[in-house]
Write a structure and sequence with these properties.
Elements: E1 14-17, E2 22-24, H1 27-30, E3 43-44, E4 59-64, E5 70-73, H2 74-79, E6 83-90, H3 96-102, E7 115-124, H4 125-131, E8 147-155, E9 163-169, H5 170-173, E10 181-186, E11 189-190, E12 200-202, E13 215-221, H6 228-231, E14 260-263, E15 270-272, E16 276-284, E17 291-297, E18 305-306, E19 308-310, E20 330-337, E21 341-350, E22 375-381
Parallel strand pairs: 4-13, 15-22
Antiparallel strand pairs: 1-2, 2-3, 4-5, 6-7, 7-10, 8-9, 8-13, 10-11, 10-12, 14-16, 16-20, 17-18, 17-21, 19-20, 21-22
Bound molecules: ligand MTE and molybdenum atom.
Molybdenum atom binds at residues 44, 91-93, 208-209.
Length: 383
């Protein structure tokens, strides 16, 4: 593979792998604004960043179980109503490094910043599919189509040099309320190359792996996508499954992400001044479930206090058309008097009352995905 034409990147990013380029910002960058600037947004790739230089000739082919194959050019997509949706994108591998510490897992190591919150601008997939003759709120097409597959331009070794791909159910793709976008903007700017220029899918509330970048084609299929990242990766296995007894076909591809939170203003082991400190971080849940509450402990989880949380637009000239930021994280903060030595813990509760698990051991899985265990940081005071 050819990595000689990668885009420029912010020098402060923490690089987890160079080729393909996988990097996250320092955790403190996540709490400096509600909207994560593209420069500090994690970058998760499986191959070289493709180059699209002729935007006039760039098109997305729509094929599969439809009447007529269609080519959609950017001018066709730009003509559709434009929506701005604030959505948090989170890699299923976020916090993998910590999971690996209890028992080794396979995959790129990530701290707590394989996550970011952006305003995605683009056409709704439901409108795009309506344009090619698939009505809104369809569950099946006349020819039996039930899934919408997204195929990329990029090439990766997991697909034996073929393109990255994924699918979502047709019912989600044609549901305007699901806010699935073909996005051409991020935070009011055209997408940059790292994040999918010129066009990417955004599936709000779902693990990042389904938000295919550099879209090349959309296929209407009877079955879900059979690609590597749907069938042999990004599945949640129980702790009893290891590389000798794994049977990939027994599990579904992971879609929604579970409730998550992390402390971003501190890290192991910070030394703090005696007195009050402000503890800050993020909390988010998948599937459009909001955050009900964030609980903070400074004694390792024996006693708790409730953090305050907020959502606000970072870019006043863009409003979120979804009304509330139901796909977006909340930032939280709480003031606390830190004892001599403290184990600070965060756990969030979503609107369905789902709570993060206390211990990573109970959710350990061989691919190291969905580490949503209580986030802990250890601090002590100056001598
Ligand atoms: N799309 C393509 N074409 N190639 C990829 O490697 N990675 C996926 C997804 N879409 C990927 C892709 C994964 S695993 C994640 S978490 C998100 O893109 C990351 O998006 P970002 O790099 O814009 O943060
Ligand atoms: Mo990911």
């Amino acid at each position: 593979s050819d990595y000689s034409q990668e885009p420029p990147r912010h020098p402060s990013l923490l690089i987890n792998s160079k080729e393909p380029f996988n990097a996250e910002p320092h955790r403190s960058a996540l709490i400096s604004s509600y909207i994560t600037p593209a420069d500090f947004f994690y970058k998760r790739n499986h191959g070289p960043i493709p180059i699209v230089d002729d935007i006039e000739r760039y098109s997305v082919s729509v094929t599969g179980l439809i009447e007529n194959r269609k080519e959609l050019y950017m001018k066709d997509i730009w003509k559709l109503p434009k929506y701005n949706v604030t959505a948090t994108l989170q890699c299923a591998g976020n916090r993998r490094t910590a999971m690996s510490k209890t028992r080794k897992v396979k995959g790129v190591g990530w701290d707590i910043s394989a996550i970011g919150n952006a305003i995605w601008g683009g056409a709704k997939l439901a409108d795009v599919l309506a344009l090619i003759g698939i009505p809104k709120s369809s569950r099946i097409t006349p020819s039996g189509g039930k899934h919408v597959e997204f195929v990329s331009i990029d090439k990766c070794k997991e697909e034996n040099g073929g393109p990255y791909k994924a699918s979502i159910p047709l019912s989600q793709a044609t549901n305007p309320e699901a806010d699935v976008l073909l996005a051409y903007e991020m935070n009011g700017e055209p997408l940059n190359r790292d994040h999918g220029y010129p066009l990417r899918v955004i599936v709000p509330g779902v693990i990042g792996a389904r938000s295919v970048k550099w879209l090349d084609s959309i296929n209407i299929l009877a079955e879900e996508c059979q690609g590597f990242f749907m069938q042999r990766d990004y599945k949640m296995f129980p702790p009893s499954v290891n590389w000798d007894n794994i049977n990939w076909s027994t599990r579904r591809p992971q879609m929604d992400f579970p409730v998550q939170s992390a402390i971003c203003s501190l890290e192991d082991v910070n030394v703090v001044k005696p007195g009050k400190i402000t503890i800050k971080g993020y909390a988010v849940s998948g599937g459009g479930r909001g955050i009900e509450r964030v609980d903070l402990s400074i004694d390792g989880g024996k006693t708790w206090m409730e953090a305050s949380k907020f959502q606000k637009a970072g870019f006043p000239y863009i409003s979120d058309d979804s009304g509330s930021d139901k796909w977006a994280w909340v930032l939280f903060e709480v003031e606390a008097d830190i004892p001599w030595i403290a184990e600070i813990v965060a756990k969030a509760v979503d609107t369905a009352a789902n709570v993060q698990p206390e211990d990573v051991v109970v959710i350990w899985n061989l691919r190291g995905i969905l580490n949503t265990s209580w986030h802990r940081v250890h601090v002590r005071q100056y001598d």
